């Protein structure tokens, strides 16, 4: 596929045509083989618009183009212009328009807004609070209007077990974090942290870290150093701008929960299959069109969330090998129930899923008897 061309290819060569598709006020130039069908064109438009093919409606000369028709039969020639309309909800990733990952707005009372004493300064003179941190091992500073981590935190050293800095405006995690060598939980979600502003050289010293939460930040990639955190059981990096996961995730063999929803990932590394302890994986709202077959190696997997992706198939051994899988969310993907029934092990999985939700069915919370691709999202 060639993007950005106008009418670079003439009809004379009989191989391809250039057309322009108007969508959300913008014109998308795209070159396609002249024998393409409308469905082929929709597939090419998917990564450019984040709209799933079944959610696309292409309009040319006032008519809606049928999927099975060729562009030639639809009288779409070189230089043609058409309009794309998207059905609400039928998109992958963050939607038709790329949204910047920003921290959620925080509500504060008028009383807090009127305080003139900076939280960082208040902490520095509050000796009793520092003593409490050292005694309990819990440093609780969430929603404290912080723009930087108070230096007093580093004085806790080996006594600190939990550091909660979530819901602040912190944009820098220095290498001093490595001095908290007994840290078990590090919560940094809803801040302004990018990959350049966090010291992974410091994080690798946290050999006892079991929970790392960096959701709702500005990360566009995770470094190979992530693989050094071999004690991790939970990794939360949802609502960032991640394009992929590092291959070194294979070393996180104790990882049980992986949440990477609402990012920009178009590929999942095959090494994820070596994370043998995974029980829950959330890859929803990304740009995935396929999954690695190695997902079928996650023998302890219980919940798999894949909604709002461009997926057309699942790993062929998923239902056969993942014998504990009972929650599967395929809402707003291209995967149909007819396709699912073709997979080996589908019947056993479906029975397992039904048994799990039997109590809700009894109370008529979930009335559908057949599989609903979005039924398991909760």
From TrEMBL:
Domain of life of the native organism: Eukaryota
Gene of this entry: LOC111484491
Keywords: Leucine-rich repeat, Repeat
Residue ranges crossing the lipid bilayer per the database entry: none
This protein's name: LRR repeats and ubiquitin-like domain-containing protein At2g30105
Pfam assignment, any one: LRR_14
Cellular component GO terms, alphabetical: cytoplasm
Annotated PROSITE patterns: LRR, UBIQUITIN_2
Alphabetical list of SMART domains matching this protein: LRR_BAC, LRR_TYP, UBQ
Domain Ubiquitin-like, residue spans: 17-88
SUPFAM superfamilies given in the database record: L domain-like (SSF52058), Ubiquitin-like (SSF54236)
């Amino acid at each position: 596929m060639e993007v950005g061309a106008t009418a670079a290819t003439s009809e004379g060569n009989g191989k391809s045509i250039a057309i322009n598709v108007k969508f959300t006020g913008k014109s998308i130039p795209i070159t396609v083989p002249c024998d393409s069908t409308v469905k082929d064109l929709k597939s090419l438009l998917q990564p450019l618009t984040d709209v799933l093919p079944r959610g696309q409606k292409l309009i040319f000369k006032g008519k809606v183009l049928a999927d099975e028709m060729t562009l030639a039969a639809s009288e779409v020639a070189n230089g043609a212009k058409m309009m794309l309309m998207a059905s609400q909800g039928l998109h992958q990733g963050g939607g038709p328009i790329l949204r910047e990952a920003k921290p959620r707005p925080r509500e504060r009372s008028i009383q807090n807004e009127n305080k003139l004493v900076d939280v960082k300064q208040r902490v520095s003179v509050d000796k009793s609070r520092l003593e409490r941190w050292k005694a309990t091992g819990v440093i609780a500073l969430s929603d404290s209007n912080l723009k930087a981590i108070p230096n007093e935190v580093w004085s806790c050293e080996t006594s600190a077990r939990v550091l909660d800095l979530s819901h602040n405006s912190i944009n820098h995690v220095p290498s001093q974090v490595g001095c908290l060598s007994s840290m078990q939980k590090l919560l940094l979600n809803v801040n302004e942290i990018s990959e350049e502003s966090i010291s992974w050289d410091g994080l690798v010293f946290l050999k006892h870290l079991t929970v790392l939460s960096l959701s709702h930040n500005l990360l566009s990639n995770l470094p190979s150093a992530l693989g050094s955190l071999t004690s991790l059981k939970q990794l939360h990096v949802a609502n960032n701008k991640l394009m992929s996961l590092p291959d070194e995730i294979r070393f996180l063999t104790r990882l049980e929960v992986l949440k990477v929803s609402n990012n920009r990932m178009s590929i999942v590394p095959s090494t994820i299959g070596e994370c043998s302890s995974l029980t829950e994986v959330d890859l929803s709202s990304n740009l995935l069109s396929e999954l690695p077959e190695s997902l079928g190696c996650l023998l302890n997997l219980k919940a798999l969330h894949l909604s709002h992706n461009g997926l057309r198939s699942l790993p062929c051994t998923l239902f056969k090998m993942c014998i504990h899988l009972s929650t599967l969310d395929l809402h707003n993907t291209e995967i149909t129930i007819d396709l699912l029934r073709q997979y080996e092990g589908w019947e056993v999985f479906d029975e397992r899923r039904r048994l799990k939700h039997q109590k809700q069915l009894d109370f008529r919370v979930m009335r559908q008897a057949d599989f609903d691709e979005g039924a398991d999202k909760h």
